[in-house]
Write a structure and sequence with these properties.
Length: 130
C-alpha cells in the first residue's frame, strides 16, 4: 500500500453541462493514453461524489506529486455549487481521518504548478471550515 501524505484539489476546467460527468473526464484521460481517469474522486455539480481511480493506485493529476497524494476534482471552471463544497468538506474530513492527513497537507493544484489557475476556487476558505 502506498503512503498517502497529502490531498490535492482540482477543477475539471469546464462548465459545459455534458462535461458534468465522470465518464466524460475519464474518456478525456483515456484518450491521453492513461490507464484510467487521473483523479481519485470527482464531484458533480449536484454534489455527488463519484469514484475515479482507486486510492490504492497512484493518480495522474499533479506532476511530481502523484505518488503520495489523493486527487479530488470538482466539476466546473468558474461555476461551482454549494452542494459540491458540502460534499468536498465531508470527503476531506473522511480522508483526513482515514489517512491521518492534517489540514496543512491539503493543497490547491496551483500550489505546485504556478502556471495553472486550477482549482479556481478558494481552498483556504474550505480548509477553515473543516
Ligand atoms: Zn488541477
Amino acid at each position: 500500500m502506498r503512503k498517502i501524505n497529502k490531498i490535492i484539489l482540482h477543477c475539471s476546467d469546464s462548465d459545459i453541462a455534458e462535461h458534468d460527468d465522470i465518464q466524460v473526464v475519464r474518456r478525456w484521460h483515456l484518450e491521453r493514453g492513461w490507464k484510467d481517469i487521473g483523479y481519485h474522486y470527482f464531484i458533480t455539480k449536484n454534489g455527488r461524489v463519484r469514484w475515479g481511480r482507486s486510492p490504492a493506485m497512484y493518480g495522474a493529476h499533479c506532476a511530481g506529486h502523484n505518488r503520495d497524494s489523493i486527487g479530488i476534482c470538482l466539476s466546473g471552471r468558474h461555476k461551482f455549487t454549494p452542494y459540491q463544497f458540502n460534499s468536498l468538506r465531508n470527503l476531506l474530513i473522511r480522508l483526513m481521518k482515514e489517512y491521518d492527513i492534517p489540514k496543512s497537507a491539503i493543497y490547491p493544484h496551483n500550489h505546485f504548478n504556478k502556471n495553472k489557475s486550477c482549482p479556481n476556487y478558494n481552498v483556504q476558505e474550505i480548509i477553515h471550515t473543516l
